[in-house]
Amino acid sequence: MRQEMARWGMVIDLDKCVGCQACTIACKEENNIPHGSPQEQKRRTEIYWNKVIAVSNGKYPTVSIDFIPMPCMHCNNAPCVTVCPAKATYRREDGIIMQDFRRCIGCKYCIVACPYGARNFNYKEPEEEEYHRPDPPPSRSQRGSWPFPHRVHGVVEKCTFCFHRIDQAIKEGRKVGDEVVPACVEACPTKARTFGDLDDPNSQVSQLLASRGWTRLREGMGTEPKVFYLPK
Amino acid sequence: MTRRTFLKLSALAGAAFAAARIIKHLAIRSTIPVQASGENTINDKWVATSCLNCPTRCATRVRVADGKAVKITGNPLSQVSEGENCPRAHIGLQVLYDPERINSPLKRTNPAKGRTIDPKWVPVSWEQALSEVCDRLKLLRERHQPQKLLLLRGLNTISDEDMICRFADAYGTPNVISADALENEAEKSGGWMADGNYIHSAYDLARTNYILAFGASILESDTPLARNLRMWGKIRRERPNRARVVVIDPRYSVTAAKADRWIPINPGTDGALAMAIANVIISERLYDAKFIRNWTSGFDKYKELTLNYYSPERVGVITGIHANTIREIAREFAVTRPAIAWRGRGATSWPKGSYNSYAIFCLNALVGSIDVPGGVIYQEKPEYRSMPKPVEDSIAREGKAKPRLDLRKTSRFPAAEVVTNQVADSILNDSPYPVEVAIGFNSNFNMSAPGTWRWDGALEKVPYYVHIAPFVSEMAEYADIILPACTFLEEWSYDHTLPGSGCAEVRIKQPVVEPLGDVKCITDIVFEITRRLGGTVAQSFTPLGKDTEGFVRYRTKTLIPWEEFREKGVWVGAAYQYYKYDRIFNTPSKKFEFYSSNLETRLKETGNGVHDRLACLPHHEDVEFQGERDEYPLVLLTYQPLLNVNNGSQNYPWAQEIFLVMHGVGWTNFAEINSRTAEALGIRDGNMVWLESPFGRIKVRARVFHGIHPQAVSIASGQGHYADGRWQKGVGVNPNQIIGVDYDHISGQAVFLNTRVKVYKA
Amino acid sequence: MKANFEPIEGKSRSYSALVMILAILSLSGFVSFIISYIEGHQMFGSSNVIPWGMPIVMAIYLIGLSAGLHILAFLIYMMRQEQYREVIRVAVFLAIILIFGAMVFIALDLGRPEKFWRLFMLFYLNNMSSMFAINAIFYTAYFISAVIYLISLFLNTKRFSMIMGMVAFGWAMLTHAGTGAIFGFISAREAWFSPLSPFEFIFAALASSLALLIVLLVIIYKFTNRRLSQELITSLGGLVKGLLLGLLLLMLVGELTHIYSPARDATMFMLAGPFSWLFWVFFVGMGIIVPLVILFHPRAKRSVPGVVIASVLVVIGIFVKRYYLVIPGLAYPQHYYPGKIEGVWGATGSFPITPAETVLSLGIVALLGLLFILGLKYLELLPTKEAAEEVPKEVIEEGGEASEPVKA
After folding, report:
1. Does residue B20 have a pLDDT over 60?
2. In the prediction, which pLDDT does A2 show?
3. B254 - beta bridge partners?
4. What's the pLDDT at C166?
5. Sign (positive/negative) of CA torsion A178, A180, A185, A189?
6. Class at the top of the CATH hierarchy for domain B634-761
């Protein structure tokens, strides 16, 4: 199965996930995402490409709290793609919803339209020392629509399924889903997250999806997300 | 429209257009990326090293691009966690590039010392700093009082710790104090009472089928955390039979949230529950008779005790757990083999914590889970190349023979290996002798020990304090000299895994980048000091190599060739052998003891005598709280959330912004109060409240929560820093400020959980 | 047809003072924009929970005000309501200013305003399934047709004016329906998601724009010593009354539908949540009920002060409606997963009133005001004083053809 024609998806096992948030931190580390501050958290202008939410039910002593990691869902029927006027967000052939900073005009319509809160607006110029790295992933010649390392304020950003790793892997002939995976999948210590080609019946994700019942978030929205959740 | 109007409008339009162009120009400038030259070729390398953000010391690999560390990931060759890391490993980057790091030695110019007093640091050269420090050290030895040197250890690499201990030996001071008695000494002593091994227990997680966790934060803070996380995934979903996990804790911890069952228990009564479970197992004959018969002693006394005094009904009243539930759990535990009874800080950080620990540990023996696949296992130690004995002169010998400041292995703390928190009181009381010089290596007891005000007083009193760490922590504020140490990503060392995997594993630390600023590795500092001190002290160190790299190389020579070690990053010992019953019991009977002869001997040796027939048996005693119940109705419990970085600082925004996953917030901690309790007190979620103990009060935000016992209040530790650090200062509160001083006297473990508080709106 | 429109003199002290004040406010708005351009939108009250703020609220409000005014063209040419001919120029000019203002607001709300031109690369660089892109067609066509219509009015062409008037009206309706569709087509926001949204927006726009026109006419005629026909005001008031009733009906049907699941939670947040006092007191109470009471009262509806008060309340009320739709509408925490989402992820959004945003909004509104009064001075927009004094009675009583006004 040629990897260029893959349809990438992610499976998250909610039973294995322990809410450690290694995925959130590794994603920030990998993608050069600025960290927040107490004021920014209060004002909700922080940027998270991946977030882990805690959902509680019940009362003492029969409480239950679940941890739900939420990257961008890379929906097949993405509402953000529908509403972006400048074609800054679009679906690539392999199913990844891309974000082109050059085209983004910062109208924030996509943030309004996303049912998963996956998108973030850059509300300020991040300080140089916070995160400036010499190696933007990937290097500029391959970058295409990758953000400049020096982020500007006023554009929207979100999880990219680490497309830079995927493209690099395909170029080098390595197997995505086994050898090469997005940073969050790599960092998860319980191996709750899996990534791979949904169209390949032998991939790990396909096997996991066949192993037990899965759900997706806000199925009623009709977005057809490509991040699947295996329940506890 | 007239011509004039048209012209005016055109001019306006022209001006607007021009303005837009200017703005666009400005905008374009800001979007031009700042790039290093030759950006298509980035010098990229991966360095194998290990982490030090908690005592687990996981193996990692760090990617360095153009001389800057940019990514940390796991080392697949590590067996302990199968190459996985916990989130704190990634925070290593922020530890390395912490903006509040010190770049040169600092000298205090303000003689006044105190919590809010500005030391007025002045940068000095290493030469000056070291010569001043060594002058003081020489003076002490000249006066034949080397014992008045106090060495305090926080979280350091194992090689640094070996160096520090050897230095103490050569110099002649018995006062090397680690932070261990703030963590889990009572866990160790409980195990020691049974099998003679004073160690943190290791569990063969991959093969276990049942975990009964008593106050154990398996998925948040129990070491080795990364291993617990990896094994969790494995035993819950990667095997044909899923391990069952039951958590017993007054608090709905992350572990409880992921477990199959959470059983809230009255704070401090875990020992009673363990005895009741034993009662059920024994009375229903569900125990492993073969193991009991062949490899244990004292079973009859134990059996008599449990059957006569720990019926599920009686214990149900003590613990607040229904007797039927106790029976259910006991039966499940006994028949789902192999099963593990895991004792954590929540069960052992109590005045009788050793006995709680002993009682819980005995459950493992009851079901035959000692040194079997899926049970309790005994960590192998790596055989480093042994160092020659330190050269002792008479000064050193005399010094080491003096009594210790922490009163370990005295009648007060008969079995203790170290009694960290006692040192503050000893200093304040000048007993058994005053301290002249203290050196702290990455220590921060002014934040992390109960009764922080005593450490403030003690540090104020010590005439000369040297602090060695990469940043200025709360303890460092009292220093006369600060020697900046490098962070763990800039130094050479060897670290081995603490108990967890069974088989030994050694990890290298090698610098991933050149040290930032004028800093030195701790081992280099020690080498330098010994050289300056000369004499026997220097002689003890000369065979070990000239510097840190040399020392690490020296010690690991017998394990693995140096180049291979540098490339692989880990050395893994032989596969673990089970059923070593002939070797693992360091007891007089050479068996697992339900009646501890080791403790009996020790009590007699330290002049305690054995008056109480229960003294050497596992049992439960009602908790003596600090504070009367009528005045202080709630019990203050503290816990360590996963993102609490254990190095004395919390100045790491990646950790701070998502600090409490269960509550979905960061940049804070709060007092978690049961919803019904809060309602009765008129407190709503988000109100500011005062938490008052007999020792003081703190103002904190209330979090009304269903996941906490109605008689307890719970606060996450790790916040409340007041030392400089833009991401930590003033964030949250430190509960240790109002927790009183108490000990588990057998082990010297500082008690964190028996302070009572009252809560009222601010 | 004889030209009977003239510019105002604009020489009075109060006129100059007004120009000065508006100019200063505009300048401060511009400065505020520059600051936010350099510092980023952290200067505004928006966040990742409520990404749209005052600029978008003002934009949709102004579009409504603008588009609604063209109903007069429809009434004049199709319904033969000749009495509105005297105010049609002012109305169209006002509409052009307002749509310009709306587009300025939209451009300034963008994170990267210098890229605003990307909104107009229709079919080439634009994703035409986006309502923003479709609206770009509508707004541009509307703006152009309104300008051409105004020019045709200046040139006094009869038939061409009528055609352009209807064209402008058509584009105006599409424009504002499109604005409503921006919100109505977003299924993620359950309180917004509704096919009625375009129509609600149109009714609200028509009501508010006519109300604004009433208020402005009364003020301008007063300040320029023109006699305002009470029947004109009353008939405009009657229009507003009918439109308010239509709006009320649409909203009733819309909200009731949403109260039945599955949008119930979000709708109850809007109707009974922490911010609902804004909705009930300032919009429903002050913006619809009180004006309706006034406009139904037999004496009040004929008195100019009564209609003016009702109009002022409608203008404010519809603004509150726009604000309430956008900002509390976005504050509703999205339910990603069943259960209570803890902490910041499940918290209701908050929107602080920030000085930068307020000054910017006021500044642009001031700029529009400035352009408007400059237009009054340099363009022939208002009926001549003589012509304004008498309204052809035959038209009102008989509904007959427009005839020459009787010159005093």
Report:
1. no
2. 75
3. none
4. 93
5. positive
6. mainly beta
Asked, as a colleague might, if the bond just before A182 is cis with ω within 30 of 0, I would say no
Closest CA to B473 of B465, B597, C343, B282: B465
Residue B637 has pLDDT above 50, yes or no: yes
In 3D, which of C316, C322, C315, C370 has the Cα closest to residue C29? C370
Q: ipTM, 2 decimals?
A: 0.93
Which residue type is seen at B163?
Answer: M
Q: CB under 8 Å to A161, separation ≥6 — which residues?
A: A8, A10, A71, A72, A74, A96, A182, A195
Q: How far is CA B239 from the centre of its chain?
A: 31
A113–C186: do the CB atoms touch at under 8 Å?
Answer: yes
Query: Using CB atoms, which residue from B1, B27, B665 is nearest to C112?
Result: B27
Helix (H) or strand (E) holding C184: helix C158-184
- Cβ-defined contact of B226 to A189 (cutoff 8 Å): yes
Q: Cβ of C261 under 8 Å from any chain A Cβ?
A: no
Surface of B (399-428) touching A: CB under 8 A: none
> Is B664 an interface residue toward C (CB < 8 Å)?
yes
Tens digit of each residue's pLDDT, chain C (408 residues): 344 777 877 778 888 999 999 999 999 999 999 999 988 899 999 999 999 999 999 999 999 999 999 999 999 888 888 888 888 999 999 999 999 999 999 999 999 998 888 888 888 888 899 999 999 999 999 999 999 999 999 888 888 989 999 999 999 999 999 999 999 999 999 999 999 999 999 999 999 999 999 999 999 888 888 888 888 888 899 999 999 999 999 999 999 999 997 889 999 999 999 999 999 999 999 999 999 999 999 888 888 899 999 999 999 999 999 999 999 999 999 999 999 999 999 999 999 999 999 999 999 999 999 999 999 888 888 887 765 554 454 444 444 444 444 444
Query: What pLDDT sits at residue A128?
Result: 53
Bridge partners, B495 (sequence order):
B507
For residues B69 and B63, the answer to whether their CB atoms sit within 8 Å is yes
Domain that holds residue A203: 3-230
Q: What percent of chain B has pLDDT over 70?
A: 95
Residues of A in contact with B24 (CB under 8 A): none
**B748 vs B598: CA distance, rounded Å:** 17
Give start and end residues of each alpha helix (H) in B405-451: 422-429, 445-448
C3 Cβ under 8 Å from any chain B Cβ = no
* B43-92+489-519+545-575 is a CATH 3.40.50.2000 domain: no
Cα atoms in the 13 Å half-sphere on the side-chain side of B142: 8
- The secondary element (H helix, E strand) that includes residue A64 is strand A62-70
C-alpha–C-alpha distance, residues B105 and B125, integer Å: 6
Counted domains in chain A: 1
- pTM attached to this predicted model: 0.92
Tokens of C111: 């994170």
Annotate C293-335 with DSSP letters as a single string: HHHHSTTGGGSHHHHHHHHHHHHHHHHHHHHHHHHHHHHSPP-
Beta strands in B602-705 (DSSP E): 634-639, 671-674, 688-693, 696-705
B200-378 fold: Dimethylsulfoxide Reductase; domain 2 (3.40.228)
Q: If 0-12 CB within 10 Å is exposed, 13-18 middle and 19+ buried, where does residue C271 land? A: middle
Å between A209 CA and nearest CA of chain B: 14
- CA–CA dist B477, B465 (Å, integer): 10
A 129-158 → B contacts, CB under 8 A: 129, 132-136, 139-141, 148-150, 152
